[in-house]
Amino acid sequence: MTKLIINADDFGYSKGVNLGIIEAYQNGIVTSATLMTNMPGARHAAALALQNPNLGVGIHLVLDCGRPVNENVPSLINEKGDFHRANALIEVAELVDIEKEYTSQIEKFLSFGLSPTHLDSHHHLHGHEKIFPIVSKLARKYHLPVRKVSADLQHSSNIELSTVQHFIPDFYGDSLTAEHLLELIDQSLSYESAELMCHPAYIDEPLLTGSSYALQRVRELAILTDNNVRSAVAEKGVELVTYKEAFNQSFV
Q1: CATH number for 210
Q2: CA-wise closest residue to 123 among 212, 227, 19
Q3: Which terminus of the chain is more exposed, N or C, with fewer CB under 10 A?
């Protein structure tokens, strides 16, 4: 039976995002979330996580949204103190600053009293060739799995780190349907472990004005909590789990 993690990204972005994720967990098929410790809704998300201890919560490492946690990472920020956008960031970010900021984000997560289940990142930057060696180092330091970054079995992430066999990033966009979600889940059935990424949310002002992917999240939430979807997933024989259960490990 496939162990399937359904992970909601951007936990901590805002209260609307946080409450949507909790709804998708309590009344839907979401099993896991990853928390942005640098965003305004981080403490609210952490409080909700503590109230819902069976929700797997990992760390959504951030370099290109909001502001840094560490106060001394000058190569990562613009004149306003905000992170550079992703394309500019890759060009100007110094590796020492990336490691400092990622470490600060992990330590801030731990300060909330939570035990992280895994690491992933905003806009998948943890898989970039410049950034991945830092993430790999931190994953080993904190004994954490990471979101899959390569289908190449010889990639170091698949040799040195714990990661699922299959990652599904395609539940995303302007024309999502329940049928599409179920088709994506079918892709996982030939693997022992898989992760499907999603972004459910309720709309609030910070999300509406801050993200280009806002209204679509309400549609995601509706699909992920649809009773017919829940029944169909149960009939497929997948086991909905968190990273903790998928790897049968005790984390930090």
Answers
A1: 3.20.20.370
A2: 212
A3: N
Binding annotation: 60, 122
Task: Please give the Cα distance from 58 to 248 (Å, whole number).
Answer: 15
The SS3 of residue 213 is: coil
Q: What is the pLDDT of residues 237-250, one digit of tens each?
A: 899 999 999 997 54
Residue 237 included in any domain: yes
In a domain, 209, yes or no: yes
Instruction: Determine the Cα–Cα distance for residues 148 and 157; give it in Å rounded to an integer.
Output: 7
* Long-range contacts from 135-142, C-beta under 8 angstroms, 24+ separation: 135/61, 135/102, 136/160, 136/161, 137/99, 138/99, 138/102, 138/103, 138/106, 142/106, 142/116, 142/251, 142/252
Residue 133 vs residues 4, 18, 138, 139, 189: alpha-carbon distances, Å? 26, 30, 9, 10, 31
Q: What is the pTM of this model?
A: 0.95
Binding-site residues for Mg(2+): 60, 122
